[in-house]
């Protein structure tokens, strides 16, 4: 790894910021302490700071030179409702809440970049740092956009980073096009007529109908969806009844749908409603479908992905950059920003957990696991990546690539 010397010299400060945020995790939009921590530092470094964007988001703007070209750099701030299993000194001080996805590290990396950019101002244009709440399921990126993010703070492109356990520390993974999947949820409620289980002919069994619906849903993937369009449809919940000898009045099933494109979502929702209603009717029951579209797929702009890969190769070398990394069916709400502006999202390797010192939990160092901890060795290289992105993008290097 080859982080910038000025940032490497601040590694202890970045580590202290990250561990302070880790020790004080906050959920969803309630990231008041973290947002204040971020905003106070940006203001001290000379950024023009706007608080409360998308409820609790923070935007820091720094301008140098004469150019009006602008770049957006994004980090997420929220934690997860998980009780931490680690017992080291910077463990969570909030019962049932922990930074199990590394957003503490993402925030610290962007703060490190912001400090370096403000100190040197060796760029020509506008740098906007977007610190976002509520990535974990509440669409904080969408909330910031709906609050006028790109109208109030216009940018020509936007970039983000997520740590990734399993990729070696200091290595990066990215790809042009789809990197992460969409995430939609569904719940199908089937209503029948309850009766004694010994006399099923006197009722209309919603549980039996719901089982046929669950089987039928897989036909959407295997018979309606184009085979080259990757789709995952998983039924993950099935609820009905309270007694062994009673056929209930209601049953419901629910689950998730993941895709790498928007079009299959339309198909799945339409076919799901048709299958559920007609199968339920075949068994003299009635079905209602609640289909909720969550995060869209995270799709990197090809030009910006190639540009980002160039920056990474300069920092860590060709052998540490996988520019055709395997996409994941996990979802990420940075996707909302990429629908509005071209940009690129990359994975930075978090290693295999060997970085954790004494006091870590017994589980693996995986995302959304109670034994997870961000690898602080990544902070200088992640911050350096953000700095180089800003310098080179504002110099017009990405635009030149397109030409």
TrEMBL record:
* BP GO terms, sorted: diaminopimelate biosynthetic process
Entry binding sites for Mn(2+) = 101, 103, 136, 162, 368
Question: Which positions fall inside the Peptidase M20 dimerisation domain?
Answer: 184-280
The cofactor binding remark recorded in the entry reads:
The Mn(2+) ion enhances activity.
**Protein name from the UniProt record:** Hippurate hydrolase
**GO molecular-function term, one example from the UniProt record:** N-acetyldiaminopimelate deacetylase activity
Q: Which cofactor does it need?
A: Mn(2+)
Keyword terms of this UniProt record: Hydrolase, Manganese, Metal-binding
